[in-house]
Specification:
By secondary structure, this protein is α/β, with parallel strands linked by helices. The protein has seven helices and seven strands; from the N terminus they run H-E-E-H-E-E-H-E-H-E-H-E-H-H. The protein has a single domain, classed as P-loop containing nucleotide triphosphate hydrolases (Rossmann fold). A seven-stranded mixed sheet has the order 1-3-4-2-5-6-7, with helices on both faces. Helix 1 packs across helix 6. It is globular, with a radius of gyration of 18 Å. Bound molecules: guanosine-5'-triphosphate (GTP) and magnesium ion.
């Protein structure tokens, strides 16, 4: 349940899709976000965890999302469109990081509220990529964020992928321990309907890039083609002549 599954999606196709990412719009308030039916994947996590860098790495572009050594760089929700130019099929949302100590308290609270509201009400949200510094693991603030989205993760409405970033800074042994600890922490979100993964990621070494692109592409694909409810299938089966 918590091991990242390998979707049946050619890596080359998934990377080409991720490469199509282009800037769409930026919003400082939720009501500035475009109303859309496109499945949206939000990149969330502590400030400096590597959200913007991960978006750039997945998109194989240097400066699509603004990455920086200065924590708290991303102050707005930035949206990126993916897929064919004339027919985008998904959005990535780069969200402001949390937990950055030097941000003024009032501004911090305002942003936390925007984040919480976004994660709770954004109807088109179909997946969350939670970026966690692999050396820190899931912190209290990450757990709080998970609590916000837990109801929609448990039902499978929102998929969850936890990326342990900057994996290039860990030994193999440390990396395995980080994976195990994160997997255990996510265990309580697991249900039959939940889709939860955890994986190592390094923008520097390109660890996990192809697999993450495949996973996200698969999320979007399954969001586009919802399976008929089980009751419909049963109803159809019932009308099939049995002789
Ligand atoms: N070694 C290493 N450094 C990384 C990696 N990913 C990101 N970094 C560095 O971590 C710092 C923060 O990266 P960002 O992508 O700006 O982090 P962010 O989560 O977007 O931060 P905010 O916008 O402040 O919330 C930068 O100095 C990056 O170069 C990685 O895979 N390996
Ligand atoms: Mg950022």
């Amino acid at each position: 349940m918590v091991a990242a599954s390998a979707p049946a999606m050619p890596e080359r196709e998934a990377l080409a899709w991720a490469h199509s990412a282009r800037f769409l719009t930026t919003a400082s308030k939720l009501d500035q976000l475009p109303v859309t039916e496109l499945p949206e994947i939000a990149f969330v996590g502590r400030s400096n965890a590597g959200k913007s860098t991960a978006i750039n790495t997945l998109a194989q572009q240097r400066r699509l999302a603004f990455a920086s050594k200065t924590p708290g760089r991303t102050q707005h929700i930035n949206l990126f469109a993916l897929g064919p130019k004339d027919a985008p099929d998904a959005l990535f949302a780069d969200l402001p990081g949390y937990g950055y100590a030097a941000v003024e308290r009032a501004a911090k609270l305002r942003w936390q509220q925007v984040m919480a509201d976004y994660l709770e009400v954004r109807r088109s949200l179909s997946g969350v990529v939670l970026l966690v510094d692999s050396r820190l693991g899931l912190t209290d603030l990450d757990q709080r964020l998970l609590a916000f989205i837990a109801p929609r993760v448990r039902t499978g409405e929102v998929r969850l992928l936890v990326l342990l970033t900057k994996a290039d800074k860990l030994s193999r042994k440390e990396a395995n321990a980080a994976l195990r600890t994160a997997g255990e922490a996510l265990g309580e979100l697991a249900t039959d309907d939940a889709d939860i993964g955890v994986a190592l990621f390094s923008a520097l070494k390109k660890t996990g890039v192809g697999d993450v692109a495949r996973t996200l592409r698969e999320w979007v694909r399954s969001a586009q083609a919802p399976r008929p409810p089980a009751t419909d299938v049963a109803a159809e089966a019932a009308t099939v002549p049995t002789t």
